Structures are given as structure tokens and as C-alpha cells.
User: What shape does this take?
Amino acid sequence: MAVITTPFDFHSTAAEVIEGIDLSGHRAIVTGGASGIGVETARALASAGAEVTLAVRNTDSGNKVAADITVSTGNTAVLVATLDLSDQSSVSSFTASWDGPLHLLVNNAGVMATPETYTPEGWELQFATNHLGHFALANGLRKALSAGASEVGEARIVVVSSSAHFRSPVIFDDLHFRFREYDPGLAYAQSKTANVLFAVGATEHWSGDGITSNALMPGSIRTNLQRHMSNQNDKNEPGGKTVEQGASTSVLLATFPLLKGIGGRYFVNNQEAEIVDRITTDMTGVAPFALDQPNADRLWEVSKQLLG
Assistant: This one.
């Protein structure tokens, strides 16, 4: 497979990536759309004419962001809905209430480096939120995505991962740290590898319905995601991005015409990443275990079993 290249790079913004794209008649969902790169992802999609639903835990914040996006884009079709990805009943309520086709699903929300916490099901919180919550969401919206693909020729799922995936594959024998001592960084890394494997699995299972999925690393951006990190009050790290730059690769995967029908890949700085044997200093590659088809197949089946 040829590596996908684009005219955009590290410095490109979401607005630059979406310039000239018309999303009139498209419907999009952005999880975590009330903060960080989720806001700028939603803003870019709305600026191109899409109806955008911000799927958020805090609807007060969501409504403020929606109003701001409407003012900046002139698009009044910016909606807000409650979604807590760590709560399967919340995910079920969200998917049950969705009506009509869906063309773009941006799995943007996440938690990072949280203290050791488990859901009522006994699932480690980061894996439960970052992977299982989005897995259940996408499965619950599959018919809507299929309908969207029938309308416009494709539906896309965008998955926000991280270079942290390099730190850990999915440990199938101990997903929830019942045997290992809990390490918040490794738990986050495992969940981010799971995000990439989901994109591989979703493309394999659903591309026949016109649904494809790709994953991405947004870059180093100081947002509320890092609130559990010790340096949370620092500004962007050297070489970091603005939120407008950080959202650009999400927007690229959602809208770039040359990605039609292409899925199961991982992008960094608006370019497809190459598989590397060792971690690179600039973290622009992707670990082989994150794109491994047998790993993706196993995770898909394990996730289905966990969700019943």
C-alpha cells in the first residue's frame, strides 16, 4: 500500500485543511467537542456547512461552545447532547436517541493518566473510556453511519490516538491491571493503542458498507486532557502546537478527498505515518503492534464480549 501524502504539515491549521470543502447535508458527531482540539474540530466542520453535534459530559460548557461556534461560522446547526463514555448506559441513551443518517464520527474525547479507577463493571477507567466507550458508541451508530454512506458514498470514523501508544501494546491477558501494578501512563498507552486497532478493525468489518476509519496523533497540545499530569499548569511544550494546529489532522481524516475508501491507517502532522521498529525521537512513526490485523481482530472480539 502506498503511503498517503498530503499538502499539509505540522503547522497547518484545521481552517487551512478544510478550506474549499463543502459539507452541506453532512451530519457529524464530535465527542469531547466542548474542549481542546474537539472545539476546533467541530468549528472547522461547522464552517464547511455540516450539522455538528457536540457529544459532551458537561452540557453547560457544550452550549457555550456551540454558541461560540455559531457566532464564528454563521452555522446555526451546532447541537449539544449528553455523553459520558465511561458510562455504558449514557452511551446507550445517546445512540438510542440518534435519529437519521450520520456521515462523520470523530472519536475525540478521552481521559489521560488518571488515578487508579474502575467502572462498575470492573474495567480500568482509561481503557473503558478511551476505547470501550467509543467502541460501543460506533457500534450503536453503525446503522446511522451505513445510512450516511448510502447518501454521500462514504462515512468516516476519525479516532484520536497518541504517540503514547508506543509505550504499550494492548495487554490482552491483563487489560484492567488486575495482575500488574497500576501505572497510569501504561494504562493510557494501552488505551491509545486500542484506539488505533479499532480503526483497523472498523475498516475491516464495515468498509463493505462504505464506512472507513483512520487514527491520528494530534501532536503536543496543552489542553485539559493533561489535568492529571504534574506539569499541568505549564504552557505548550517546546515544539508543541496550538489547538487549531492540533485539530488539523482530525479534520484532514474527516474530509480529505483522497482518503475516500481508505482506512486502517495512522496519521501524524497531516501525513500517514510509517511503521517503525523503534520509537523515533520525533514520535512521527507508528508501532507495528498498533496496526497488526490479528491484534485488531482479537481486540474486536474481546470488546464485544466485554460489552455483551
User: Anything to note?
Assistant: The chain has one domain: 14-307. Residues 226-238 have pLDDT under 50 and may be disordered. The CA atoms of residues 55 and 265 lie 25 Å apart.
